[in-house]
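In response to reviewer comment 3 from the previous cycle, which asked for concrete evidence that the modeling workflow produces usable outputs, we include below a single protein chain processed end to end. The sequence was submitted unchanged, and the resulting structure tokens are shown without manual editing.
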Amino acid sequence: MPIKNRTGLTLTELLVASVLMIVISIGVISVNLGINRLTNQNSVSTRMATELEAAMLAITKDASLAVGDATNFGIWTNQPVPSLNKDICFRQDVLNTSGNYSDDTYVCYSEIGRTIYRCANIASPSPSPCPVASRQLILNAVRDVEFTNADDFFGMTSWPAYMIFRLSTSIDVLSACNNTTNPCASLTTNISPTAHGK
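The workflow returned the following structure tokens.
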């Protein structure tokens, strides 16, 4: 049988087809890996932002219920410089006895080693507002916590007075922020305790 009448692929054609299939397969795998990496980054960023928002909502809720007046603040802050350990406490009128602060308790938020804890039903915030036994984890991986000092809040002459509260977080709190490898999230809010008779 002559060679011209044969049907099929030559060795060269088979090699070219194999190389093309390998190139196309590598391209498909690369696109798939890129999509998976992007999905994972978005998932981490979304989780981080959700945790940050939940922490801010908890702090805002407790701060808005703070009670006190110009002579008995009801808000206690501790911001040693330089330190990672910062505390802010809000007096709560749990028994609804307006003007009587002796039966009130505090809700405190403490940044301890780049983690924020909430402690409720604290009799007095000073000197250690958040004992280990009553700590509830609020936010891990804290880059920074900033808030208005209680004395500055009560020194405000305009009304309504408010405290500025800012939280920021990232995957690796010790490294610089980077949109792809170490995204950062930050929230800032102004809190004006509505139950506060300034």
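The chain has one domain: 42-191. We consider this sufficient to address the reviewer's concern, and the full set will be provided in the supplementary archive.
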